[in-house]
Description:
Elements: H1 10-19, E1 32-33, H2 36-48, E2 53-57, H3 63-69, E3 75-79, H4 82-91, E4 98-102, H5 115-118, E5 124-129, H6 135-144, E6 149-157, H7 158-165, H8 174-180, E7 183-191, E8 196-197, E9 204-211, H9 221-233, H10 239-242, H11 249-259, H12 272-288
Parallel strand pairs: 2-3, 2-5, 3-4, 5-6
Antiparallel strand pairs: 1-8, 6-9, 7-9
Helix pairs in contact: 2-3, 7-8, 9-12, 11-12
Amino acid sequence: MLTAEALTNRAEVRRLLKEAGVRPSKRLGQNFLVDAAAIEAIRAATSGIDPQQIIEIGPGLGAVTHALAELGVPVIGVEVDHRLAELLSVTTAALEGVEIIRADALAFDLGSDDLAWGRQASRRVVVGSIPYSITAPLLKHIVDHRQSLAGAVLVTQREVAEKVAASPGSEGSALGIMVQAFCDVQVLRRIPRGAFLPVPDVDSTLWTLRFLEAPRFEADEDLFFQVVRCLFGKRRKMIRGALRDLLDPEQVQAVLLDAGLDGSLRGEALDFDSLDRLAMAYERNRASE
C-alpha cells in the first residue's frame, strides 16, 4: 500500500510516473507537490474553512488527497489526465471517502448535488494547485459557483496571488477585483519552486478565499464588471478616456458627475465604493437613453 510519505519521496514519485508511462505535461501544468510541510499547510488551511465536502482539482498522484482524507469528509478528486486518473485509483485505493472523477475542472459542475454520494452541496471547499494557463478561467468558474461553495484553498503562481490580494489598487488586476468582490482573500505562505517535481520556473503561493454573504458592490453585476474590465483594460488612461469605450464624451462627463469622481484619476486608484458608484451611474445613464 502506498503511503502519504511515499508520495512526497522524489525517487518514489519518479518510479510511479515511469511505471505508469507518464511524462509530466507542461501544457497541463503537471508539477507534483512533494513538500510535506506545504501539503500540511494545505490540509490545515482547508480544515480552517470547516468543510463538509472537498473538491480537489488536479490531485496528480494523490499526495494532497491523502492529507485531505484525514479531515474525515468526502473528497472528490477531479483529474483531466486519464493516465493520472488511473494511477490515482491505485494511490488512493486505501483512502476512505475518496472518489476520483476524470473530468475537465473548467467544465465540472462544482455545485452538483450528485457528488459525494448524493449529499447536497453544503460548505463545499475547492482545493487545488492551479496551472497558470487555466488560473483565470478556473477562478471565474469557482466564483460563478459561489452559491454552492464556502471557499477555496489554492496554490497558484506567486504573481497571481499577489495581484489578487492587492486588488483593487495599483498592483491589482481585473481578475483580482472579480475575486475580491465576492471573497475575503488571505495569503498564507510562499511555496518555493523546489517543492515541486518537475521544478517549475516560478515560485508559488498558498492562499485562501472565503465567500462573503453579499458582494462588495450593489450595482448590476454585469455592468459592474463591464466597467472594471474597461478601466483595467486601459489602465494607463485616465478614467474619462477609458470610459469612452462605453460612452460618448458627453455621457462620460455626466456619469463622472453623477458618481462624484474626478475623471483625471486612473481606474487603479478606485476602491470598491468608487467602482460601485461609477457602475451605478453608468447604469442610470444607460437607463435614461
